[in-house]
Specification:
The protein is an alpha/beta fold. The protein has one domain: P-loop containing nucleotide triphosphate hydrolases (Rossmann fold), CATH 3.40.50.300. It is 48% helix and 15% strand. A 5-stranded parallel beta sheet has the order 2-5-1-6-7, with helices on both faces. A two-stranded antiparallel sheet has the order 3-4. A hairpin with a 3-residue loop joins strand 3 and strand 4. Helix 1 runs parallel beside helix 8 and helix 5 runs antiparallel to helix 6. The mean pLDDT is 93.
Length: 179
């Protein structure tokens, strides 16, 4: 059985959904790095404090951690047994992300620490405000860059690149079966 899984992928790729499903099926605690990093008012947690919190979480015996923060990858990857990288087609990710962002904006759903996505941010040309633009600009990293970095930075871990919904489903079945 796998006890420590890191999940990576572009915004909108389904990493939180995958992490949530893995955590439920394997009875593992789950941490979403966005919830730690984004403080009230979308303020970033200082790097030293972020690293300290993630280090504490990564030291536990069992977990699923989802998120893409370079400043803590070494901490997560040092302990991960499996690193799952979602590399779904751009059109799939963009469709999901746009739908999710509009739904969250209309419903004014709180994400973390009082933060909410704004529909006005979808009109921004600033990728730090517009999550769709951010994802569009960063999605290519999950095709080769992140998996290659994971293989180099965590040679002890099994790196799994998931490029379709079918591969995600098979991965979930394999992990649940203990493979």
């Amino acid at each position: 059985m796998v006890d420590r899984i890191a999940v990576h992928g572009a915004s909108g790729s389904g990493k939180t959904t995958l992490a949530r499903t893995l955590a439920a099926r394997l009875a593992l605690p789950r941490t979403e790095l966005d919830a730690l990093f984004h403080q009230p008012g979308w303020t970033a947690l200082p790097t030293d404090e972020f690293r300290a919190r993630v280090s504490h979480l990564a030291e536990r015996d069992r977990w699923v951690i989802d998120g893409n923060y370079r400043q803590v990858r070494d901490l997560v990857w040092a302990r991960a047994e499996v690193i799952a990288v979602l590399d779904l087609p751009r059109r799939t990710v963009m469709r999901r992300l746009l739908w999710r962002t509009v739904r969250r904006g209309v419903r004014r759903r709180e994400l973390w620490n009082g933060n909410r996505e704004s529909l006005a941010d979808l009109l921004s040309t600033d990728a730090d405000r517009n999550v769709v633009l951010w994802s569009w600009r960063t999605i290519g990293r999950y095709h080769a860059e992140v998996p290659d970095e994971a293989r180099t930075g965590a040679p002890h871990a099994r790196v799994v690149v998931l490029r379709s919904r079918g591969q995600v489903d098979r991965f979930l079945e394999q992990v649940a079966a203990g493979d």
